[in-house]
Recover the amino acids of this structure.
């Protein structure tokens, strides 16, 4: 594992950061990191972004976006262009679940309640 993306600052999404930091870079929106600092959370992300960023591994791109306030003011959406797949964390809280949206065949939708 080389990178971990915090989809927001709440402990159920960032609480394992201290365990990952020795082996991976943790990436988060700048607001998520600031929220973690205010909350005195351990395992602060060392890599932050404002609107979007990308990571390239083995010729595969992973894009991370901030689309404005969702569940928190620091939510991230992760897009895998080659797979045409998004993971939205709990960006759309009113759906009451996390959703992985796939935009092309094969159609795969993951749901975590």
């Amino acid at each position: 594992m080389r990178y971990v993306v915090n989809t927001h600052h709440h402990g159920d999404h960032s609480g394992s950061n201290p365990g990952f930091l020795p082996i991976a870079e943790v990436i988060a929106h700048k607001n998520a990191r600031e929220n973690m600092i205010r909350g005195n959370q351990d395992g602060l992300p060392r890599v932050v972004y404002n609107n979007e960023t990308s990571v390239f591994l083995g010729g595969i791109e992973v894009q991370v976006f901030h689309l404005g306030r969702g569940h928190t003011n620091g939510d991230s959406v992760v897009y895998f262009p080659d797979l045409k797949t998004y993971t939205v964390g709990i960006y759309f809280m009113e759906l009451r679940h996390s959703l992985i949206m796939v935009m092309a065949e094969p159609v795969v939708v993951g749901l975590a309640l």
